[in-house]
Structures are given as structure tokens and as C-alpha cells.
Specification:
By secondary structure, this protein is an alpha+beta fold. It has helices at 8-33, 35-56, 63-74, 104-116, 182-229, 243-293, 300-328, 340-348, 352-358, 376-392, 451-462, 489-493, and strands at 77-82, 87-91, 120-125, 130-136, 142-148, 154-163, 169-178, 336-339, 361-365, 371-374, 399-407, 410-417, 466-470, 476-485. The chain has four domains: 3-33 and 185-224; 76-178, Beta-Lactamase; 231-331, Helix Hairpins; 333-493, Heat Shock Protein 90, CATH 3.30.565.10.
Length: 494
């Protein structure tokens, strides 16, 4: 099984167990393998330090007492001689000290070695070292036999040549014994074996508990995420225990809530679009069948109804395409200076038939022409959609007012109706696609029901301020603001 397909629970268990095994290995390595070397290096450093202490007091009148105290406290033997091998101080605190069993020639060799090595020298004498001694048999024959030179444990002798204040040279020789640690190592090995077994068992138990504890909230969130992936947007994420898990929990719950909103909007959108598509299609089919089956029904009025309903379908499809492009961010602005006031007047000419046939009152209030820089086609779509929305919710008086207010270098366009109005809590939702204030969808008199959502996206694309003011029974006021630019047309004509 590949590691990436392994459960996080078992990964954590393996990592903790591996860490415990590595720690046990390191302990064994240092306590068993490196123990002898570490012990020996410690004794060497100790001898160097004691030699430096004696060297610092070489001219002291109390040197003999100092050396005796140092040797006794550290369980060493010491010998201080001059370069001619004349003994100055001799301290033998260790029974059968190797240093004091050496001959004058041995001591002279130590001095020469120290001199050759820059003033200090270490020499080790193991218990397996031998010397040859002369013997004479009872019959008068002479020969040599090997005899163990030192029957004691390994010994270290440190030799250091120093110069006193008077210029006289001294030779400091210190001897310490390195006790065998094999027995200690064996004891440690046995002890560490049992300690390692207990430690590993505890580590495995700890790894099992921790892996389960750490992975539980993640596994729980994963199970909830699987439900969300299946389309269950009502799922709730309740993983806990860690800050990161809590933050992930909150993020996923937020995502689930948003997906729930999107799902509800999708269903609502499908239902609304189906309603708006079905009505004109039914009318087109019905009138076409009547014109086919009944003689004399092929009238211009019936043909116009079919054309109007087909145009309604075209408008619905176009609006859906527009809003999809706007929300996808693929629309490009073609900004250029143009006369906003004249553009509004031109848009209102489209409502002549509505005014004549339905009795609507649509008026435009403007004291002068203003010029702005924007995408003229998209801004005309904004104004057209706002007027359509006002017409659909105009109220009994069927009055719609478009008002142009200039303040400094800013122009504010307002579209007002005298309809039922909107509660304050519902105002942020009026820009959503097919949002229904009265929760009872009805086909708009003009437009497709997507107009305000298109308005919002175009406003945001232009980075313009916009909004809506409304209250129940007071009608609605949809507005936006734009920067006025200087009219260069007249200047160019002059």
C-alpha cells in the first residue's frame, strides 16, 4: 500500500512509533557504544586540567601541599622532576601507582616524548602490555621471559614540560587509572533492554491514543465533506479540538451555507425561468395553432402577439447570457464620453406604446445636459432595466419618475415608483436574480426578472455608487452616481 493512501491515523501512529524507536537507538548508541570513548576522553581532559592547575602554582612555596591536595582529591599520583630527572615532588596516593613503578629510563623517555611533541604528551599503558626481564636458571643458563608489565587496569600518564619564574624547567607527570567499564556496560545493556521494552510499549500506547485523538476530528470532517459532495447541503461540520480544525470547521460550515443558498437560488431560478419560458411558448404555440386551424384568424393582431412573445423569449435568453458574462468577468468596458441626458431621453422613447396603450405616466426631470465617461451601451441597459423595474411595480397610479440631480461634479440618476415599497431588511436581496419581494412570482409586464441583477453587475464593473431607498407603502427609489466630465463637443465646434 502506498503511503499517500494510508489513513492519517496510521500515519501518525507510525511517525510516533518511529520517533520512539529512534530515541531508543540513540540512547543505546551513547550508553553502550560510545561509553568507553567518552569515559576515556573525560579522564584525559581531567589530567590536562589538573596539570594546568599545578603549572599555575609551580613557583608557589606551598606547591607540595597543593600537589598533594590535587592528587588526593582526584585519585591520581603525581611526580614533578627537573629536566635531569631529579625528583622535586613525589605524591603517591594511589596504591601500586604505575608512575612510581617506572625506572629512570622510562621517566627519561616520557620527558623526551613530551619535548618532541611540543611540551606535552599522553601515553596509555594497558593491562595487556608486557616487558622482557632477565632471568638465570639454577643450571646457570640465562634468558628472557615475558612478564606482564602492569597487572593493573589501563593507565594514562600525562607529561607536561613547563618553565618556572626563575627560568628553570620542570616536568609534571600525572598518572590516573581507567577502570574497566565492561561490567558497567553489561549492566547498562541489561537495564536498557528492559527500559527499552517498557518505553516502546508506552510509546505504542501513546501513539495509538494520540493518533486516534488527532485524526478523529479530521475523519469526522471528512465524512461530513463526503455528504456535502453528494449534494447534502444541510450537513453540519462539528469537528473540534484544535484551532486549525475549528477554523476549518467554520469555513466548511460557511461554504455549506453558501452552497445551500446557491442551491435554493438555482432551484428558484429554474422554476422562475421555466415559468417565464413556458408562458410565451404556450402563447406562441396557441396562436399559431389557431391561425393554422381556424380560417380567418391569420390576422395582423395574432401575428403581432406571436412576434411580441418571441421577442420576450429573445430578451430572456439575452439577459441570461449578459448576466452570465458579467458574473464570469469576461465583459470588457468600452468607456468613452457621451451625453447621459440625451441617452435617457432616447431610452424613454421605447415606452411610447406602453404609455399610449396601458396609461402609464413616465416623465424625466432634468435641468441640463450632462456628459459622463462610461460604456454607453451598458449604461443604457442599466437605465432601461431600472425603468422596467419601476414600471412593473409602479402601483395604481402607474407613475414612474426619472430624476437627474447635479451636485458639483457628480450627477445622480434616480428612478422612482409609487408602488408598495420594500421592507428595509429585504433591500440587500433585491439585486439577486429572480428575487421575489412578495414570494409569489409573477411574470413582469416588461423585462425578464433579471434586470436588477444585471444593473448591479454593470455598476460594480464601472465601480459606481448605487443603491435603493424604499419603505412599505412609500414606493422605491433606485439610484446611481457618476462623475461629470467637461463637454468637449462645443469646444471642438468653436
Amino acid at each position: 500500500m502506498r503511503l499517500k493512501n494510508t489513513s492519517i491515523k496510521w500515519k501518525l501512529f507510525a511517525y510516533i512509533a518511529l520517533f520512539a524507536a529512534v530515541m531508543i537507538f540513540v540512547i543505546w548508541l551513547f550508553q553502550i557504544v560510545f561509553l568507553n570513548g567518552f569515559y576515556r576522553q573525560t579522564k584525559i581532559s581531567e589530567l590536562k586540567s589538573l596539570a594546568n592547575t599545578i603549572s599555575a602554582n609551580i613557583d608557589s612555596n606551598d606547591l607540595s601541599n597543593i600537589v598533594t591536595e590535587v592528587a588526593g582529591r582526584n585519585n591520581i599520583c603525581a611526580k614533578i622532576t627537573d629536566t635531569e630527572n631529579n625528583v622535586e615532588i613525589n605524591v603517591d596516593t594511589v596504591p601500586r601507582c604505575v608512575l612510581h613503578q617506572m625506572t629512570a629510563q622510562d621517566l627519561a623517555n616520557l620527558y623526551l616524548q613530551a619535548k618532541q611533541h611540543g611540551g606535552s604528551y599522553f601515553e596509555s599503558f594497558s593491562k595487556d602490555s608486557y616487558q622482557l626481564i632477565n632471568i638465570q636458571s639454577s643450571d646457570g643458563r640465562q634468558g628472557v621471559i615475558p612478564e606482564k608489565k602492569f597487572e593493573r587496569d589501563e593507565n594514562l600518564i600525562y607529561t607536561q614540560i613547563i618553565t618556572g619564574g626563575s627560568g628553570r624547567q620542570y616536568v609534571i607527570m600525572l598518572n590516573t587509572m581507567i577502570s574497566p567499564v565492561n561490567a558497567t556496560v553489561q549492566t547498562l545493556r541489561s537495564q536498557l533492554f528492559y527500559i527499552s521494552m517498557v518505553f516502546m510499549a508506552l510509546a505504542l500506547i501513546f501513539a495509538a491514543i494520540m493518533s486516534k485523538k488527532v485524526s478523529k476530528p479530521i475523519i469526522k470532517i471528512n465524512e461530513s465533506a463526503k455528504e456535502l459532495a453528494k449534494g447534502n447541503v444541510a450537513v453540519h461540520f462539528d469537528g473540534e479540538g484544535y484551532r486549525e480544525i475549528t477554523e476549518l470547521n467554520d469555513t466548511l460550515n460557511y461554504a455549506a451555507e453558501e452552497l445551500s443558498k446557491v442551491e435554493n437560488l438555482r432551484r428558484e431560478l429554474i422554476a422562475n425561468v421555466s415559468h417565464d419560458l413556458r408562458t410565451p411558448l404556450t402563447m406562441i404555440t396557441g396562436y399559431a395553432e389557431v391561425m393554422r386551424d381556424i380560417p380567418g384568424e391569420n390576422t395582423p393582431e395574432n401575428v403581432q402577439i406571436i412576434i411580441d412573445e418571441a421577442n420576450r423569449l429573445t430578451s430572456l435568453v439575452n439577459d441570461m447570457l449578459d448576466i452570465s458574462k458579467l458574473q464570469a468577468g469576461v465583459q470588457v468596458l468600452n468607456e468613452a464620453p457621451y451625453n447621459l441626458t440625451q441617452s435617457i431621453r432616447r431610452i424613454l422613447t421605447r415606452y411610447t406604446k406602453l404609455i399610449e396603450q396601458e396609461g402609464y405616466h413616465i416623465r424625466f426631470e432634468a435641468d441640463r445636459d450632462v456628459f459622463v465617461k462610461a460604456d454607453a451601451i451598458k449604461m443604457e441597459q442599466v437605465i432601461y432595466n431600472l425603468v422596467n423595474n419601476a414600471v412593473n411595480y409602479a402601483g395604481e397610479d402607474k407613475t414612474v419618475v426619472i430624476r437627474q440631480n447635479v451636485s458639483g461634479d457628480t450627477v445622480k440618476i434616480e428612478v422612482l415608483d409609487h408602488g408598495d415599497g420594500i421592507e428595509e431588511a429585504l433591500l440587500p436581496y433585491v439585486w439577486d436574480r429572480y428575487y421575489k419581494i412578495d414570494k409569489a412570482h409573477k411574470q413582469a409586464s416588461i423585462g425578464t426578472g433579471l434586470g436588477l441583477s444585471i444593473v448591479k453587475n454593470i455598476m460594480e464593473l464601472h465601480h459606481l455608487r448605487f443603491g435603493v431607498n424604499s419603505a412599505p407603502g412609500m414606493g422605491s427609489n433606485f439610484w446611481f452616481e457618476m462623475k461629470i466630465i467637461e463637454d468637449n463637443t462645443e469646444k471642438n465646434q468653436n
